[in-house]
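Researcher: We plan to redesign the surface later, but first we want a full-length starting point. Tokens attached.
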């Protein structure tokens, strides 16, 4: 495996990304935030950019990156150090996600799922024994985790789930299936949400070796090709009482994990947008048509000017959300607004950047199509574009479109 990775690294171009900070937002970040961001940026340039097109082309997940992600502190950056996290604040978590997604949304997904959807619920809802048993191994990348909420017939409406647990001596018997689960085929453990006999949603940690557990891979994705996705199938899996989260009941358990991950995605999308803008800006100065650089044409300038304007607005939005998150005041609806706006902004920018690259924009010589295809998933997972719109609508009107 290592030889293959080294050969691929040697055969590809270097990552020429330069940061774009039109409103001097870096001045609003602390020295620690900048150090964390630059360390992750260097790591992405070294470890991700040289190989990612090839992995995406082959629809293969670069599993070897799990260890490196752990080493750079990408798993649970804002969780306490004693529980396997990085002990940093929400802004640091955000800038790390931005840099990872600048490399690839799938790589950011590896970190989002492990940190926000697996470590965070164990930290927030787990017993002390559950925390001590699983968090250090997840933080160090020794264990890979996944998060099972979505089902084949319940995506936007997870409250309708049919996966269930029934009480037996010493624990529960788990039955059902989860769909579209990032990392499930390679996960050592799964945080699973299922209804108990009273119809209340409970969370639990399920280990891959338990009888009746399987996690088949989903093939044929044109998006997030360098990320592995699968199902989770439970056929009479015995889950000991000690693996069930003791207190949390109801949909607010999984939804509060989603708030954490959606916040990271709102930062991450800016990374993907910056990469597309950076590539388009450079190309517009290097590519000549009609005897001059295409960046000299007003129509190209309009595209670039609108791109940096939208990126700057998204940066301002996320900086304020990060400040509120650090104060513990960011509401789920505010997070929904940022996730929806920033991911859509990134997707629009990817489409404009593709046009600026002309025919070259459809090739894997440039990162554009990979980002654009990835962002189609990012627009849908963690709550679709329209679901987040309805969350904002509900927040401002006080009227619930889902009931
Ligand atoms: P509703 O009655 O509104 O709420 C139930 C309870 O949950 C509370 N709540 C939240 N708490 C924390 N954070 C949030 N974001 C919350 N949203 C709601 C709410 O206050 C209530 O609490 P309580 O105490 O009253 O019980 O629930 P509903 O059934 O009407 O659904 C509302 C809706 C549609 C907004 C929600 O179900 C939703 O967000 N749907 C989208 C589903 C989704 O986002 N799935 C994501 C699956 S995971 C994933 O995609 C991972 S991708 C991984 C990767 O990065 O690779
Ligand atoms: P549906 O809910 O069927 O939605 C279809 C369409 O209907 C959408 O446009 C939606 O906006 C619209 N719609 C639905 N309800 C309404 C409404 N009330 N009003 C208006 N429009 C509506 N899930 C996990 O649990 N864990 C994971 O790790 C995970 N990883 C994923 C990785 C990938 C690559 C993908 C693609 C998905 C992943 N998901 C995961 C699932 C993801 O969260 C769901 O795909 C998403 O929540 C949408 O559900 P759905 O695909 O069933 O679409």
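Model: Full-length starting sequence:
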């Amino acid at each position: 495996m290592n030889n293959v990775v080294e050969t691929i690294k040697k055969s590809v171009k270097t990552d020429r990304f330069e940061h774009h900070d039109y409103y001097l937002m870096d001045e609003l970040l602390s020295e620690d935030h900048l150090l964390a961001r630059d360390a992750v940026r260097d790591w992405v340039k070294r470890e991700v950019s040289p190989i990612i097109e090839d992995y995406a082309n082959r629809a293969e997940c670069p599993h070897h990156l799990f260890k490196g992600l752990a080493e750079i502190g990408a798993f649970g950056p804002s969780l306490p150090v004693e529980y396997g996290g990085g002990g940093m604040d929400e802004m640091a978590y955000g800038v790390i996600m931005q840099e990872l997604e600048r490399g690839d949304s799938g790589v950011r997904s590896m970190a989002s799922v492990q940190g926000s959807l697996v470590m965070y619920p164990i930290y927030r809802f787990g017993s002390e024994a559950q925390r001590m048993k699983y968090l250090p191994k997840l933080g160090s990348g020794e264990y890979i985790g996944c998060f099972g909420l979505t089902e084949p017939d319940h995506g936007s409406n997870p409250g309708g789930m049919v996966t269930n647990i029934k009480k037996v001596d010493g624990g529960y018997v788990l039955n059902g299936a989860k769909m579209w689960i990032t990392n499930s085929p390679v996960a050592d453990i799964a945080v699973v949400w299922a209804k108990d006999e009273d119809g209340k949603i409970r969370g639990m940690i399920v280990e891959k070796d338990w009888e009746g557990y399987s996690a088949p891979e989903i093939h044929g994705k044109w998006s997030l090709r360098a990320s592995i996705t699968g199902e989770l199938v439970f056929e009479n899996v015995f889950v000991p009482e000690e693996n069930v989260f003791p207190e949390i009941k109801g949909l607010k358990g999984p939804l509060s994990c989603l708030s954490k991950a959606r916040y990271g995605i709102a930062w991450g999308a800016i990374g993907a947008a910056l990469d597309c803008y950076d590539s388009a800006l450079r190309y517009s100065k290097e590519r000549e048509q009609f005897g001059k650089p295409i960046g000299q044409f007003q129509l190209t300038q309009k595209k670039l000017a609108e791109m940096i304007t939208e990126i700057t607005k998204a940066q301002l939005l996320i900086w304020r959300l990060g400040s509120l998150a650090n104060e513990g005041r960011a509401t789920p609806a505010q997070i929904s607004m940022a996730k929806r706006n920033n991911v859509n902004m990134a997707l629009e920018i990817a489409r404009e950047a593709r046009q600026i690259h002309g025919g070259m924009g459809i090739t894997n010589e440039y990162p554009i199509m990979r980002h654009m295809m990835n962002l189609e998933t990012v627009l849908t997972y963690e709550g679709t574009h329209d679901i987040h719109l309805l969350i904002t609508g509900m927040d401002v009107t006080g009227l619930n479109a889902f009931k």
